[in-house]
Amino acid sequence: MIFDVAAEVIANTRLSADYNIVSLAAPDIGQAAGAGQFVMVKPGTSFDPLLRRPFSIFEILRAEGRIVGISLLNKRIGVGTSLLYEARPGDRIASLGPLGQRFVPVHPPEEAWMIAGGVGLAPFATLGESLAALRTPTTLLYGGRSSADLFRVEFFESLGARVLLMTEDGSRGERGRVTRPLAKLLGERPPDRPVTLYACGPTAMMRAVAELGRQFRRPTFVSLEPVMGCGMGGCYSCVVPILRGAQSHFVRSCLEGPVFNASAVAWNSLVEGH
Hints:
globular; Rossmann fold; 2 domains; seven-stranded antiparallel β-sheet; alpha/beta; Elongation Factor Tu (Ef-tu), domain 3; 36% strand; 7 helices; single chain
């Protein structure tokens, strides 16, 4: 079921000069949400921004054993994200969701490796909780440009996940891109030990993860991040190219995604930023 609510801001946790986590009182959305789903949100009541913007549901918020809302991991870039960064407790945020297809968590003895780049961490908090509940051995490979782009590492460690950090400038974890340790781990893993890859982040990173999954014959799922105008399939702004046999055709990410089997994505036709 999909809900359209004017969710009250419970808290705004500033993580840095550009990143924050907005907590919203949206229990119905939280109750219905699954790992990898998203909401369309619009802060404020002005016409700027005119349309809602998609955000992966970061956390399912609980209090005294009850689901009380959701949180959004936000990076201040444009008008809408700046308004979310400046949101104050008591403000109302128009929130539509949960929307889209979910990640399907694997069961042990299979392992789950989550590969996140920057704010691509967002869908993995809920997935990480689902995997922990199943007692699935989990690894998070988390990369960013610098230490200023890495957050909530302790949350994933508290779930029992092995966490490997990479930064392009070497300011935290190893220096380099997150696909480097992934390639090493895949190369060392015997073929008879199953593992599923889950990725979200910049398009180039997800494409590289998809190629590694193909090379090592590991199931790989990606959460694409196309521009969306409505989130309900009406505007066709979020189409992505999907392979059917030797041909590709476009599907609406808000309906058939944002989670896709990486082997089905026509990466050569996918525009950066989708």
